[in-house]
Amino acid sequence: MGSSTTDEVTLEDLPDLLYKDTRVKVAGVDVDGQLRGKLVSKKKFLSMAEEGFGFCSVVFGWDMHDQTYFKELGISNKDNGYRDILAIPDLSSFRRIPWEKRVPFFLVRFYDPDTKEPLFACPRGLLKSAVSKAEAAGYRAMAGAEYEFYQFRVPDTHPTPERNASATATFLKENPVEALPPLTEGMFAYSLSRPIHNQDYYYGVYDNCRLFNCGIEGWHTESGPGVYEAALEFDEAKAMADKAGLFKFVVKSIGTKHGITPCFMAKPRQGLPGNSGHMHISLVTADGTNAFYRSTPDPSPPYPDVAHLSDLGRHFLAGILSGLPDIMPMFAPTVNSYKRLVENFWAPVTVSWGLEHRAASIRVISAPTASPKATRLEVRVPGADANPHFVLAAVVALGWRGVEKKLDIPVPPLSKGDDMGGASDQGARLAKSLGEATVTFMRPESVAREVFGDAFVDHFGGTREHEVRLWEEAVTDWEVRRYIETV
After folding, report:
1. Residue extents of the structural domains in the chain
2. CATH code for the domain defined by 139-462
3. How confident is the model at residue 156 (pLDDT cuts 50, 70, 90)?
4. Is 60 exceeded by the pLDDT of residue 426?
5. E strands, 285-438, in order
6. Which GO molecular function, any one, fits this protein according to its record (predicted)?
7. Pair 310, 294: CB distance under 8 Å
8. Contacts of 90 (CB under 8 A, 6+ apart)
C-alpha cells in the first residue's frame, strides 16, 4: 500500500495496532502545504476513527502565520459562524514518528460537515479527485518528487532544541537576512566530504525518512552554500504527495534538534540558484505497464522528441502545456516563487518542453535515454515552496484534460542549445509575479476553473490575493537602503 507501513489497516485492526499506545497524533494539510494537527488520546482517536471529528475551519481562514485573510472566503467566515469542518482519519496513512518515541501518526482528509462531501480546498481531497478520473479509465498515476533546499545555522549557541526552534526568527528581527549563516560555505554540489561536516544531521534525515515511510532515493549536496537535494522514492501520486509533505516535516524536525533551519523558499539568496521542487509523472495500466511508452518508435511523429511517447503520453503532455499558464499559483504560490522563475538561472519561464531538456518547463524522459518503464514527464516549474498535493493535482488534472480532449502539443520542442526565455520556438512567457499569475488563474475562462471548479479557484485565488496585498504593503530592507538618503 502506497503510504502505509502495513499491508492493510482497517477499523478492526486499530485496537491491536495501537494496543500499547496511549496517544495518537493526527494532522491535515492546509492550502500552504503546512501540517495542521494535534495529539489526542487513544480512546478519543478510536471513537472518531470511522466518522471523524470536528476540526476548526480557521485553518482555511488564515495564512501561514495565522493571520486572518483580508477578505473572508468560502470555508471559514462570519456567515457560518467560523464553524468546525469534518476531519476523517485516512487509515492508509498510518506511520509512527521515530523521533517522537514512535507515537502513531495519521493524516486526515477534510469534509463539509453538512454534505459530507470532500472540502473543496482540502489539498489531499483535491488530488484524490484529480486522480480518480484516470483511475476510472484503468490507469494509476505514478509520481516522484525532488527537493532542493538551503540550510542555515542557528546564529547563537543555544543549549536546547526548544530555544533553537525560535533562534532564527529572533535573529532575523535584529539582523539583515544576508547575515544568517549557511550550514556550510561555498559551492560543493555532489560532494562526498561536505556532509561529513554535519554527519549526524545528514544521516539523521535519511534514516528518519526511511522509518517514517517517506524514503529518500538519492541524497546529496547541491550547488549553493548549505544546499542539499533529495529525490524521494516514487509511488502512486496520492502517496507521493503525502511523502513529499512529510519529508519537509522530517527535515524541519531533525533540523531543530541540531540547531539547523532548513529553508524551502524558492529563492532564499539573491544571485544564487533557487530551490526547485520538480515532479515526475507517468500513468501505468493495471498490470504496471507504462502507458506513456510507445513500444515501436513512431516513424512519422509530429516532433522527433516524442517518437517514443505514446498517443496518451502526447495528449497528457499537451494538456499540461495548454493549461500551464492558468494554474501557475499552484506551482509558484508565493511572492518569492517568482524570484526563482527568471531568465538565465536554469529555471523555466515559458510554456516549453523537450526530450531530456533541462531548460524546458517539461522535460520528456523516454527512450533512447530511458528504459520503457521509466518513461515519464518531469515538470520543472514548481519550486520547493509549492504544496505537493496542489502540484500533483494540477499536473494530473491538466494532463487528463489533454487526454479527454485529445489535445495536440501546442508548441514545438525547445531546441537544443536554447536557454530559458527569449527563444523564438518557445511558447508564452509564464507569469512574472504572483499578482499576474493569480489574475490569470481566477479569470472567468481559466482552465483552472474548468478542471477544479469555481469554489476552489475562488478560495485559493483569494488566499493568493492576500499574499500579494501583504507584499504590496510591506516596506523592505532594499527600499530603505536605496531611498533613505537619496530621495
Report:
1. 11-119, 139-462
2. 3.30.590.10
3. low
4. yes
5. 353-355, 362-365, 376-379
6. ATP binding
7. yes
8. 106, 107, 108, 109, 124
Segment 252-279 shows an average pLDDT of 93
pLDDT 10s digits, 184-209:
998 999 889 888 999 999 999 999 99
Q: Is 216 helix (H, G, I), strand (E, B) or coil?
A: strand
pLDDT averaged over the chain? 92
203-237 pLDDT, tens digit per residue, is 999 999 999 999 999 999 999 999 999 999 999 99
What residues contact 327, with CB distance under 8 A and at least 6 apart?
Answer: 394, 398, 441, 447, 448
Instruction: Answer yes or no: are the C-beta atoms of 266 and 274 closer than 8 Å.
Output: yes
- Which residues lie across from 89 on neighbouring strands? 108
d(CA 385, CA 143): 18
- 415: confidence class by pLDDT, cuts 50, 70, 90: confident
Is 248 exposed, middle or buried, given 0-12, 13-18 or 19+ CB atoms closer than 10 A?
buried
Nearest CA-CA partner of 337 in 352, 347, 346, 323: 347
CA 10 and chain centroid, separation: 28
Measured CA to CA in angstroms, residue 151 lies from 26, 226, 227, 258, 472 at distances of 27, 5, 6, 11, 28
Query: In the numeric block, which cell numbers belong to residue 405?
Result: 480532449
Distance from C-alpha of 442 to C-alpha of 257, rounded to nearest angstrom:
41
CA–chain centroid gap for 6, Å, is 25
C-alpha cell at 484: 533613505
What top-level class would CATH report for the domain 11-119? alpha beta
Q: Is 10 exposed, middle or buried (0-12, 13-18, 19+ CB in 10 A)?
A: exposed
- Contact between 414 and 423 (Cβ < 8 Å): yes
Sign of CA dihedral 401, 143, 268, 427: negative
**pLDDT value at residue 2:** 36
- In the three-class reduction of DSSP (H, G, I as helix; E, B as strand; rest coil), residue 35 is classed as strand
CA distance 212 to 252: 14
Give start and end residues of each alpha helix (H) in 279-433. 311-323, 328-331, 337-340, 388-405
What is the per-residue pLDDT for 5?
43
Residue 473 exposed, middle or buried by CB count within 10 Å (0-12, 13-18, 19+): exposed
Cell numbers for 61, please give them.
481562514
Tell me how far apart the alpha carbons of residues 120 and 455 are, in angstroms, rounded to a whole number: 7
Please report, as a single letter, which amino acid is at residue 199.
Answer: Q
Reported as a single tens digit per residue, the pLDDT across 429-482 is: 999 999 999 999 999 999 999 999 999 999 999 999 999 999 999 999 889 989
Compare 350 and 420 and report the one with higher pLDDT. 350
pLDDT at 419: 54
What is residue 276's DSSP assignment?
B
